[in-house]
Design brief:
The complex is a heterotetramer, with two copies of chain A and two copies of chain C. Chain A is α+β, with helices and mostly antiparallel strands. Chain A folds into three domains: about 110 residues, Butyryl-Coa Dehydrogenase, subunit A, domain 1, CATH 1.10.540; about 110 residues, Butyryl-CoA Dehydrogenase, subunit A, domain 2 (Beta Barrel), CATH 2.40.110.10; about 150 residues, Butyryl-CoA Dehydrogenase, subunit A, domain 3. Helices cover about 50% and strands about 15% of the residues of chain A. Chain A contains eleven helices and ten strands. Chain A has a four-stranded mixed sheet with strand order 1-4-5-8. In chain A, strands 2-3-7-6 form a four-stranded antiparallel sheet, with no helix packed on it. In chain A, helix 5 runs antiparallel to helix 7, helix 7 packs antiparallel against helix 8 and helix 7 runs parallel beside helix 9. Chain A is globular and about 75 Å long. The mean pLDDT of chain A is about 100. Chain C has three domains: about 80 residues, Acyl-CoA dehydrogenase/oxidase, N-terminal domain (Butyryl-Coa Dehydrogenase, subunit A, domain 1, Orthogonal Bundle); about 110 residues, Butyryl-CoA Dehydrogenase, subunit A, domain 2; about 140 residues, Butyryl-CoA Dehydrogenase, subunit A, domain 3 (Up-down Bundle). In chain C, the strands form three sheets. Chain C has a four-stranded mixed sheet with strand order 1-4-5-8. Chain C is globular. Classes of the chains: A alpha+beta, C alpha+beta. Chains in contact: A-B, A-C, A-D, B-C, B-D, C-D. Chains B and C meet through helix 7, strand 10, helix 8, helix 9 and helix 11 of B and helix 7, helix 8, helix 9 and helix 11 of C.
Chain lengths: ~375, ~375, ~400, ~400
Amino acid sequence: MNFGLSEEQSMLKKTVRKFMEDRCPTTFVREMMADAGGYSPKQWQEMAELGWMGLTIPEEYDGMGMGLVELAVMMEEMGRAVLPAPFVETLMAAEALLQAGSAEQKKEYLPRIASGELIATLAMDEPEGFWEAAAIKAKAVPEGDGYKVSGTKLFVPYANAAGLIVTAVRTAEGAAPEEGITLICLDPKAPGVTVTPLKTMDQAYRLCEVQMDGVAVPAARVLGEAGQGWPVLEKVIRKYIVALSAEMVGGAEKAMEMTVQYAKERVQFGKPIGSFQAIKHRCADMLVDIEGSRGSLYYAAWAVENDVPGADLAASAAKAYCSDTYFKVTAGSIQCFGGIGFTWEHDIHLFFKRAKRLETTCGDATFHRERIAELWL
Amino acid sequence: MNFGLSEEQSMLKKTVRKFMEDRCPTTFVREMMADAGGYSPKQWQEMAELGWMGLTIPEEYDGMGMGLVELAVMMEEMGRAVLPAPFVETLMAAEALLQAGSAEQKKEYLPRIASGELIATLAMDEPEGFWEAAAIKAKAVPEGDGYKVSGTKLFVPYANAAGLIVTAVRTAEGAAPEEGITLICLDPKAPGVTVTPLKTMDQAYRLCEVQMDGVAVPAARVLGEAGQGWPVLEKVIRKYIVALSAEMVGGAEKAMEMTVQYAKERVQFGKPIGSFQAIKHRCADMLVDIEGSRGSLYYAAWAVENDVPGADLAASAAKAYCSDTYFKVTAGSIQCFGGIGFTWEHDIHLFFKRAKRLETTCGDATFHRERIAELWL
Amino acid sequence: MDLTFTPEDQEFRERVREWVQKNLPEEWKDSIPRTQEEREIINRQWDKKLYEGGWAAIAWPKEYGGMGATLIQQLIFNEEMAMADAPEGLMHGKGMLGPTLFKFGTEEQKKKHLPPILRGDVVWCQGFSEPNAGSDLAALQTRAVIDGDHLVINGQKVWSTWGYLADWCFALVRTENTVPKHRGITYVMIDLKTPGVTVRPLDQITGVHDFCEIFFEDVRVPLENVVGEINRGWYVAMTTLTHERSTAYLGHPIRFRNQLERLADLARNTKRNGRPMSEDPVIRQKLARSFIEVESFKHIVYRTISSRVRGEEPGAEASMAKLYYSEMLQRMTELAMEIEGPYSQLVRNSKWALVEGDWQYQFLYARAATIAAGTSEVQRNILAEHILGLPR
Amino acid sequence: MDLTFTPEDQEFRERVREWVQKNLPEEWKDSIPRTQEEREIINRQWDKKLYEGGWAAIAWPKEYGGMGATLIQQLIFNEEMAMADAPEGLMHGKGMLGPTLFKFGTEEQKKKHLPPILRGDVVWCQGFSEPNAGSDLAALQTRAVIDGDHLVINGQKVWSTWGYLADWCFALVRTENTVPKHRGITYVMIDLKTPGVTVRPLDQITGVHDFCEIFFEDVRVPLENVVGEINRGWYVAMTTLTHERSTAYLGHPIRFRNQLERLADLARNTKRNGRPMSEDPVIRQKLARSFIEVESFKHIVYRTISSRVRGEEPGAEASMAKLYYSEMLQRMTELAMEIEGPYSQLVRNSKWALVEGDWQYQFLYARAATIAAGTSEVQRNILAEHILGLPR
C-alpha cells in the first residue's frame, strides 16, 4: 500500500517540472496568448522528443505505455505552468483510438501522435447542449460505405492545429440519448469542414467552432461500431476528467505558492500580511482544499487505471472537487494579492482564467455532484 | 420615507425589552424547559395585562389594533429572550379569525385571546408532509351540519396549553392540492382529540402531536367557507413567517452581543481573542448578516402589512435569510466561545436550538428560496 | 417604518424622470455592453448634458451651482438615473473633490475649481494609493518638500481611476516624516499637465485599463493648491471619504436589481440540453439567494439614509454597504458564469458569445470590487472595531 | 501509487476480521443509538474482550504486551474494527499515556501502569486544558509545588473526557513560574482517589456529560509519578500528541463512510409530501458534497500513512486531518437536520423521532468537533505556520 508516487513517478514529475520551468515560463504563455495558433510547434516537438505525446500509448505504437497515474503527474506540472497546448486532448484522442480503433486505424494514427507529427483533439459539445449524450445531434446519414455528416461542434480544443478530430455524431435516434452515437475520425482538412477559433477568456488556450457541412466520412474513418460510440466516449471522458483534475490541482498549488510567497514579503501595517489571520487562514484553507483535492485526484487516477468498482464515482468526485478548489484558490489568491492581482501584468489571472475553463470542460462541479448522486444513491 | 422605527415603535421596543429582561431571564427559560407545560401562566397573564395578546387585534375586540411592524418589534425582543410561550401562535390564530371568522366567531374568541384567557395555536403539518397544501390530509367528512374529523397533526406549538387550535383539514379532494382545505376551530377538549407533547431539541418550546379521531366539529366552528381555507392560511402564514423572522433576528443579535462581549474579555495568548481576525472577522460577518436580515425583515413587515406588490416575495426572503443568519450566527458563536459554549450551563445553546426550530417552522431557507424562484422567475 | 414618499418628493421624482426620459438617448444606456472608449465618450457627454439640464451636482450647495438637495432628493435622483439606466458620469470631481473644497477649500480654490467640475469641463482623478500603501494607506511615501511657495513632489501613485482621462488629480502626499504616519500627510491638487507628471494606464485582467499609475518627478505645485493645512491632509481626506461613502451607493440598489433581472433573463434564455437554466432547481436556489441579497442591500441603503435623515452621523455603515455589495456582486457574476456553462469562456467579439460576452467582463471586473476602495478584510476590521468595539 | 495490500497484510486483515466477527456481539455495535451509560459499559467490556483476544494494543512493543504492529497493520486493524462497527473503547491509556511512558517513563512506571491499561482494568483521563488555558494551552496555571518527595497540586482542569470514569489522570501542571510559560510545566500521573481531588461531570448541550472538570486541592502526588523531568512536561506531552494524532484517525474514514451511508439511507427513507429526499436535486448536491469529502478524508489519511511508511516524520498533517473531518462532520450532521425538516426537532425518546433521534445527538455533538483537541482556528494557524511557513 503506497498512496504516493513511486520513484519513477517522482522522477517523471521532476523532469516535467524542469522542462516547464525552462520552456514554459509565463512569458512564453503570454507569447502564445498573442499567437494565432495558440501553441508553439517547436515546443510541441520538444515534448514529443521526450516521448510525452506517447506517454499513454502502448510501446507497439511507439509510445511509452504508461498509465493514468503518470499522466496525472505530468498534468499537475503542466497545470502549474498553464501550458498552452492541446496535450491532453491529443492523448485522449489516442485513447479513443486505443479503446475502439481498428488495427489499421491504430497503426495509421498512433505512431504519428506519439512522434508529435499529429495533433489530435475531441469534438463533443454542440451549441444546444453539452456534457451529456443528449447534446450530440450532429447528423450522420449513410452515404456509400460511409456517412455524410452535418452539424456544429463547439468548444473544440485546438481544432485549428489538429490533424485529427475525434468527433461524436449521431447515426441513429435511439430510445435513450446514449444510443445511436458514433465516433468518427474527422479530418479538419476534409471538404465541408470549417474551423473557426473563438475568443475565449482563457487566452492561453484555443477553443474552436467546427462546422461540418455534408462532410463525407468513409467507413474506414468510423471509430468502432456504428451507434456504439457513447460507451467508448464515456471511458475516454473518465480519463480526460482525471487528467483535467490533475491540471487543476497543479495550477491551484502553484497559485497558492505564489500567494504564500507574497504574503511573506508584502508588508502592510508594519507586518507581513501573512501574519494576519485573514490571510493566514485563507492560505491554510487553500492548503487543505488542495491536499484534499490531490487525494481525490490520485485515488481516481489509480481507480480508473485499474478499473476498480467505484472508478466512475472517483473520477466525478475528483472533477467536482478539483474544479471547486482551483476556482476558490485562484479567486482567493487575487484577493490576497490585492490590487496587483487585478493587473494584466501579474500572472495570477492566467491561473484564475484557466481554472474557469477547466471547470466547464466535460461537466462543472454541480454536474459531477449530480452524477455522483446518480451513481451512488 | 423612514426605514426605521417610529417613536412609538421605539418606545414599544424598550418596554418589551425591559419586561423580558425582568421577567424572562434565561434562568426563567431554564425553569420552563423543565416545566411540564413549558410556559408560565403567570407570565402569560402579565403580558396580557400589558395588552400584548391583543397587539394585532382590532380595538373593537379589546385589542390594540397594531400591525405587523409592531409585532416584529415585539418578536425581536422575545427572540432575544428565547421566550418560552405560544405568543406568536396565539396572535396568528387570532389573525385567522380576523381573516375568515364570522362575526360570532370573532366575538367569541378574540376578546378572550386579547385578555389572555384563551391561548390559541395553529395545526398544519402532518406526519407525511409539511409546509405545503399537499401536506394537509386530515380528513373531514360531512356529518349533521358539520364535519367528523380524523387525522394527525404534528409539531403543533403548545397544543398542550391551548384552548383553541385553528386546524387545517381536508373536506374535499380538488384538482390542485390547494383546493378543498378547510379551517376549523378545534377544541382540544372535544371528544376524540388527543394531545401528546413531543420531546424536542428546543426544550424551551412545546411542540405536540394532535390526534383527531372522529372529532365532531359543528358548522359554527368552521372558519370561513368550506374548501376555501388555503388562501386564508397563506395570508396567516405570510404574517407568521415575518414574525418568526423577527424572533430570529432578535435572537441572532443577542447571540452576537454575547459573543462580542466574551471576545473582549477572554484572553488567550496574552490578548483578548477579539483582537484575532479569525474571531474579529467572524463577528463582523455576523453583524453584516444580522443587519442584512433585519433589513429584509422590516421591509417584509411593512410590505405585508400594506399588502404591496411583492409582499409574498419579501416574506419568503425574510424567512430564508433570517433562518440562515440565526443558524450561522449561533453556530459561529459556539465556535467563538469554545469549550464553554458546548456546556449546558452556558446560555448560547438555547439560542442555537431555538434557531434550529424556527428554521424548520413553515419552511426552511431552501424551501423559501424555491418559493422566491416560483414567484419571481 | 414608512416607505412612502411625500407628495413633494414624489413630484421631484416625476421631474427627474421626465427630464431623463427626454434627454437620455437610448444608445447611451449604461448596461449596453460597449468598449471603454465608447463608455468614456458617453460619460463626458452625459456630464455636459446633466449640466445643461441643471442636474450636474444636485447635492452641492446652491451657492456653488448645486441644488442643495436633501438626502431624500439625492436618493430619488440617483434612483431615477439608475432606473433609466443612465451613465454614471466621471464623478470624482463632483463626488469627492467638491465636498472637500466646500469644507476645507479657500474661496479662491472654490472659485477656480468648482465651476469647471460642474460644467464637466475638467476631469479629476484621485491620487491616494501607492504600491506600498494599499490597505495601509497612511503608509504612503510620495514625498512633498516645501520649496518657496511651491511643493516639490516625488513618488508614485497607483489605482487612480480614469487617471489617463483626468486633467487634475487630488492627492495625498507626505510632507513630514518625523511624526506618526497619519500626521505628516498633506492634501494637494495637482495639475496633471505640470512637467514631471507621467500617467500610465494599468492593463487589467479584464483586458481594459480604468486604473492608472501616476509618477511624479520633481513636480512643482503651488502651495495655494494645498487643501486645508499642511500635515492635516489625512483628516481632510477621511472627512470627505466618510461623507462620500455614505451617499455613494444611493443608486446602486436599483442598478443591482436591474443586473439581477438581466441575470434572471440569462437563466431563462440559456437552455442546456433543451431545458432553460431557470428551471434548474440548483440554479433557482442560487438565483433566489441573489434576489434576497440584492433586496437586502437596498434595505441596508434605505436604513442608512433614514438614519441620516433622522440626524444621525454617518458611521461605519458605508463599510457594511461596500462589503455587502461587493461580495454579492461577485456571487452574481459567478452565477452568470455557471449558468452559461462552457459558453462562459466566450468573451466580447467572439462568435457564439452570449449577451455579447458582457457577463464575462462583469465577472472579471467584479474581482476588483472586494479590493478597491478598501478590501473586504479592511471593511471587516472597521466594522468589528468601530461598530462592535472589538480591540485592534 | 499502489493501493493494494501485500498477501501478508491481507492475511492479517482476515485474521482481524474473523476474530471481530466471532467476538463482537450484534448489540454492541457502535452506531446503535444508546445512552451514555450503556455505551460506557460496552466500552469497558470490549476493552477486556480485546485483551483476552490479544488485540488490546497492537501498536505497543511486544515487550509491553503489544504486537509491535506495523503502521499498515494498525491501519488494517482500525479499518476492520470500523468496518465491523466495533466500539472504540476507552483509549486514553492505550493511545496517549502508553506511548508517553515508552518514551519517557521509568522502568517502574512502565511496570506499574502498562499492564493494567492493557487489561482494561484502569481507566485514564487527560488533564491538560484549564478554564483559562484552552487554545493557549501553555498558559495553564494549575500549581504544583515540590514538598519533600511529593508534589502538592492546586488548581483546576477541564474538558477531561471520561473523567468521571477514570481511575487515574495524566496531567500537565505548572512547577515553575519564573521562566517562559512552556518551560515551567511538568507531566504527572495522578491517582484520582487521592484526597483533595474532586471530579465533576460537565453537562453538555447534548444533555450528556462526557467531559469533566477536575479540581485539585492540596493534592499530594509522589514525585515518582512525574514522567520525564520536572519542567520538561510540555515537550513530553507534545511528543506524544504528535505521535498520537498522526495515527488517531486510522479507522475514521470507514466510520465516516458508514455514517455517510446512514445519511443516504435517511434521505432515501425520509419522504416529504410523497417524495424521498434522496430525489431532491438540492439535497443530492449536498449529499454528493459529503460523499466527496468523506472519500477525500480517507485519501488524506492514506497519504499520511504512506508518507510515514516511507519513513517521513509526522508533521502537521494531523492538524489537516482533524480540521478536515471536524468541519466535514458538522456539514454532514447539518445536512441530516435539513433532510429531516421539522422532524429534526424530535430527539431520543420522543414519539415520531426518526432513527431514534440519533442524528439530533450527532448534530449537537458535532459542535464540539471543531473545538476539542485544538479549535479549527488553532489548526489553521498550525498549518499556515508549520507547513506554509507563514509568520506567527
